[in-house]
Write a structure and sequence with these properties.
The complex is a heterodimer. Chain A contains 13 helices and 23 strands. Chain A is of the alpha/beta class. In chain A, strands 9, 13, 14, 15, 16, 19, 20, 21, 22 and 23 form a 10-stranded mixed sheet that branches. In chain A, β2 and β3 form a beta hairpin. The longest helix of chain A is centred in the last third of the chain and has 23 residues. In chain A, about 50% of the residues are buried. In chain B, α10 runs antiparallel to α15 and α13 runs antiparallel to α14. Chain B is globular and about 90 Å long. Classes of the chains: A alpha/beta, B alpha+beta.
Chain lengths: ~450, ~600
């Protein structure tokens, strides 16, 4: 009995206005034009004037086109059949597979009751020492990778996706270059992770409205799987494109912009997506890793700035490496006390020495004379970058900690590291001279 | 008069336009009925002719044109009464744990639960007799709520003077039982239970006089209590970029502050941070009372992904509960984290109302709204002579960490203390990362101002030397300057910085602060026999190491005394004389204490 309306009053950008009755806010409609059919969502009601946001964009829509309201908000299919499939921002397959219509669930559901949340306690191992050792990723954490365009952030994401110990990976691609989309697909196929991956991909050439739907669909599906007990990793790349789409639509809707053209609710919009990261008591969890490209490497740009206030830390990707300074996992204290007794001390000690070596580099570049200690630090800095920071390094945590001790032993005497003697005597590599630690203690 | 009804005319985001058939009031609460069993709470925010614009405290998806709207004739209000302490509410005072029992993991919309337990029995002790003349806010009796005598008061909205016609005797009652009946001058009877409602946006002003806040509120954070004190009944703000430690500082304060009751308003921030408080507070003991911290805490929690309009309400809900307990002669601390999210909620609504935007699209009334919120803090003398206070501390999350933005600036105009956090200090792991030179406080502290100013001067000159040294290098700096620099670094590392994870150093009593401060002062004001810079560096390193051990020693123990002796002895080895200006300040301070 769904009525069809064919009186489009206004078309502006992606937004069309029709006269209709009995329509509900947030309801979905199907717009049929000569160029094909597109979903559209009700974004404003004013008497019998209904404004809809057309997913495929307003281009080519004529005033005589038909609008059919579907009586429900945006939904996405949820079942095991999603595994290994690729969808676009409207939830339609883009892998030539069959469309899925079983068990439709609403997207953008309510947020989790804070009193039902639990403290995160499980580490996610990635095999990347700069993450595992220095800024541990924790189950149910939300973390963005702050980066500049051109950095290999998608490579980092795909590596984490393949190596992370999770049950399920959901990739939400927003404004993805087509090559990058293919890269992800090929990498995951080659790595044998495809059958536990679901793609929701909006590429740069797709209509802008679909970009906004991607995180909601990815997270709605993730939430259901998590409730079934799965540990889900959601990768969102790139959230800056998501924010830019919000901006574009807000401006079309003649909303008053707040900061650099972004809508005033940018914070709430980002938060409602990132806050979906959760550990369900007695069920699974959602961990979210996002990518936020910083225009002009400016961390005070509204998108990285608002993101930083929402997420639990950030990874800075710079010059192809995860920077130890600035990068922060706010939840690492929750897990790195239970990994290995030397983890925390080694982490702090190595970073402190690396910071010192950076100072020596600066001193050298300013033409100051290098002391013997400076030279040691310089050597340490180089080895540290090569064996720890380089993104090609792939080691489990324990092995990475051992390598850490080896690097220290190669560059320093034990008492130069500032680490507690108890740890030194236990972990300092045996083929190096440990005698002087005992000497230190008696002295 | 007939009840006003309305119908939905339009929907735009979380704002709904309604045509009404009768009277509506600004800020009146209404419910939008989207189906037979689901109604969404909303508040009237603008009235034009027979149209009212309402902000909906829930997601608006599913609202249709023509849906009926019912009005309550009441403004958004908080339910007060015994049983508030220890509760966890959302911004509209729905108890979240009970909501979880009902709805499970998610916050289903349209579910509103009672804020207080109707079945709990309270031991009532009357404190007035029949025939007594009472006014709004006067005490009728008390019940024991945890460690507090919770006053059962004449509802704040009762007009004029009344006569107590009946009062219940000692006994246990639920909050809904009538405990007293009051007769007004027309002979009409008003029944009083232990609970009533009060509109959140109206300050409670039932007191004799508002006094000047001049008694320090001890937080056990040295940098605050000594350098940037907050007074009971005062206001302060903590602006800082992300990752600078705003929330951690608030958490520390919520644990250690020497007040009776703490209200935490988690407004638009991460849910995970609230969870930490939720899980840790019931386990932590309040050293002052021996009970858990939860028993003196109320948490209002409207985190970032919860609906925006309720976020705007949450700070008002919190401050109203704070004022209610103040009326019992208690000292209440309200911590709002973060007021920027609250301001952003106002900005979103203002945008939907298509108001002419001010700076960065914040509404033009931003400043006056912020000012009137902070003005709800204060020390008051109640009619029975007891003193109560509400202290408000709000964090601000400035965009890009730039303090020039409107919310920070509007807040700075009205607060009595500014604790500006610095990214530089937090990156250097110097916690608390309050900038010691840029922050300020207008309140008197627990330690003599003259002595504190002397130390501040050293920090200032030390900073200047540091800047200079970056250009001319250590070689180009005079020995005297270098020692000043070492002194300021010493003060920073042993007194300003504090390890909040350390069981001893984490919370320093004011007694200990006074004691330790004198030793720091002795060191800073000493003329030292240090012939060259290397000696100076080595000496201050030793001094710092000893002092850190001293900071880690428990108060009034053998270890405390021996580590103190180490420090004093080391000072004695190199001290030749004392700066005469410092001597004079010390004499004045001692005289002040003696008087």
């Amino acid at each position: 009995m769904k009525k069809i309306y064919s009186q489009i009053q206004q078309i502006a950008g992606n937004v069309i206005t029709v006269r209709a009755e009995g329509v509900r806010y947030g309801e979905l409609a199907l717009v049929s034009s000569r160029h094909g059919r597109s979903l559209a969502e009700v974004i404003r009601l004013n008497g019998d004037e209904v404004s809809l946001q057309v997913y495929f964009g307003g281009r080519g829509i004529s005033t005589g086109d038909e609008v059919q309201f579907l009586g429900h908000p945006m939904q996405v299919s949820f079942s095991e059949n999603l595994m290994g499939r690729i969808f676009n921002g409207s939830g339609e397959p883009r892998d030539n597979g069959p469309a899925l219509e079983e068990e439709m669930i609403e997207i953008g559901g309510p947020s989790v009751n804070p009193s039902k949340r639990i403290l995160p306690s499980k580490m996610i191992r990635t095999g990347i020492p700069m993450i595992d050792v220095f800024n541990t990723l924790v189950e149910s954490q939300k973390l963005p990778i702050f980066s500049v365009s051109g950095e290999p952030y998608n490579q980092v994401l795909s590596r984490i996706a393949m190596q992370a110990e999770v049950d399920l990976i959901i990739l939400g691609g927003m404004g993805l270059k087509y090559d990058d989309f293919l890269y992800f697909r090929d990498q995951l196929q080659a790595g044998g992770a495809m059958d536990r991956t679901i793609f929701f991909v909006h590429t740069a050439s797709d209509p802008i409205v679909e970009c906004i739907m991607v995180p909601d669909m990815a997270l709605a599906v993730a939430e259901r799987f998590a409730l079934q007990g799965k540990r889900v990793l959601v990768l969102l790349t790139d959230m800056t494109n998501f924010a830019d789409s919000l901006k574009e639509i807000a401006i079309t809707m003649e909303q008053v912009p707040s900061n650099r053209g972004y809508p005033g609710d940018l914070y709430s919009q980002l938060a409602s997506r990132y806050e979906k990261a959760v550990d369900f008591q007695g069920a699974g969890s959602i961990t979210t890793l996002g990518v936020t490209t910083m225009p002009g490497d400016d961390v005070t740009h509204p998108v990285p700035d608002n993101t930083g206030y929402i997420t639990e830390g950030q990874y800075y990707l710079r010059n192809g490496r995860i920077e130890p300074f600035g990068s922060l996992s706010r939840l690492k204290q929750m897990v790195n006390k239970d990994t290995r007794e030397d983890h925390r001390a080694l982490m702090d000690g190595m970073i402190r020495l690396y910071a010192n070596s950076k100072e020596s580099v600066e001193k050298r570049s300013m033409g100051f004379r290098m002391s013997e200690w400076d030279n040691k630090l310089l050597k340490y800095g180089e080895i540290f970058e090569e064996r720890m920071m380089d993104l090609s390094v792939n080691r489990p945590l324990e092995e990475a900690l051992d390598v850490g001790w080896e690097i220290l032993a190669e560059c320093f005497e034990p008492d130069e590291t500032g680490l507690r003697s108890q740890l030194l005597s236990k972990f300092w590599p045996a083929n190096n001279d440990v005698g002087n630690i005992a000497g230190q203690e008696t002295a | 008069m007939a009840e006003t009804k309305g119908n939905v005319l339009g929907v735009n985001g979380n704002m709904v336009t309604v045509t009404v058939d009768g009277e509506v009031a600004l800020n009146e609460v209404g419910y939008i009925h989207i189906s037979d069993d689901t109604r969404l709470k909303s508040e009237v925010i603008r009235v034009q002719g027979n149209q009212a614009e309402m902000q909906v405290f829930e997601q608006t998806r599913g609202i249709g044109v023509g849906d009926t709207v019912s009005f309550t004739r009441e403004m958004l209000a908080v339910r007060v009464g015994p049983g508030l302490l220890g509760q966890v509410y959302d911004g509209l005072q729905n108890p979240l744990p009970q909501l979880a029992e009902r709805c499970g993991f998610f916050l289903d919309r349209g579910v509103y639960l009672d804020a207080l337990d109707h079945n709990a029995k309270w031991e009532f002790n009357p404190s007035v007799e029949e025939g007594a003349r009472v006014e709004a806010g006067d005490t009728l009796g008390t019940v024991q709520e945890g460690i507090f005598d919770h006053r059962i008061m004449v509802p704040f909205s009762v007009p004029g003077t009344m006569t107590v016609s009946t009062i219940k005797g000692v006994g246990s009652y639920t909050i809904d039982d009538t405990v007293a009946e009051l007769q007004d001058e027309h002979g009409k009877n008003h029944a009083c239970t232990m609970t009533f409602e009060w509109p959140v946006k109206r300050p409670i002003s039932l007191f004799e006089e508002r006094m000047k806040p001049d008694e320090p509120m001890i937080t056990k954070v040295r940098l605050l209590d000594t350098f940037f004190p907050v007074a009971r009944g005062g206001t302060y703000c903590i602006p800082g970029p992300f990752g600078a430690g705003k929330t951690v500082l608030q958490q520390i304060t919520s644990r250690h502050a020497e007040v009776d009751i703490v209200i935490i308003a988690a407004c638009g921030e991460r849910a995970g941070e609230v969870v930490e408080t939720l899980q840790e507070f019931p386990e932590l003991t309040d050293p002052r009372t021996g009970r858990t911290l939860m028993e003196r805490t109320v948490i209002i929690c409207n985190t970032s992904s919860m609906p925006v309009a309720a976020r705007e309400a949450s700070v008002y809900t919190a401050v109203t509960i704070a004022e209610y307990y103040r009326q019992m002669g208690l000292n209440v601390l309200l911590l709002a984290d973060s007021t920027s999210r609250w301001a952003q909620a106002m900005r979103e609504m203002s945008g939907r109302l298509e108001e002419i935007p001010g700076e960065e699209a914040f509404p033009a009334y931003l400043e006056s709204v912020i000012a009137s919120f902070y003005e709800r803090a204060g020390v008051v003398r109640l009619r029975d002579g007891s003193i109560g206070s509400v202290t408000i501390g709000g964090t601000v999350s400035p965009a890009g960490g730039n303090f020039e933005e409107p919310v920070t600036q509007a807040t700075l105009k009205v607060v009595g203390a500014f604790h500006g956090l610095s990214r530089e200090r937090s990156d250097a792991r110097k916690y608390p990362s309050i900038h010691p030179l840029e922050s300020w406080s207008k309140y008197p502290g627990a330690i003599d101002t003259g002595l504190v100013e002397y130390c501040r001067d050293i920090l200032r000159s030390g900073n200047e030397v540091d800047q200079m040294m970056k250009v001319v290098g250590e070689e180009g700096t005079s020995l005297e300057d270098y020692i000043t620099y070492q002194k300021s670094e010493f003060l920073d590392s042993v007194y300003l910085q504090q390890n909040s994870f350390d069981p001893v150093d984490g919370a320093v009593t004011v007694e200990r602060q006074r004691h330790v401060f004198r030793i720091v002062f002795d060191i800073l004001s000493a003329e030292l026999d240090l012939p060259n810079k290397d000696d100076a560096r080595v000496y201050f390193n030793q001094l710092r190491q000893r002092f850190l051990d001293y900071n880690g020693a428990e108060w009034d123990t053998e270890e405390f005394r021996s580590t103190e002796e180490d420090v004093v002895k080391l000072l004695g080895q190199k001290r030749t004389s004392t700066d005469p200006r410092a001597e004079e300040l010390r004499r004045q301070a001692d005289a002040g204490v003696g008087a």
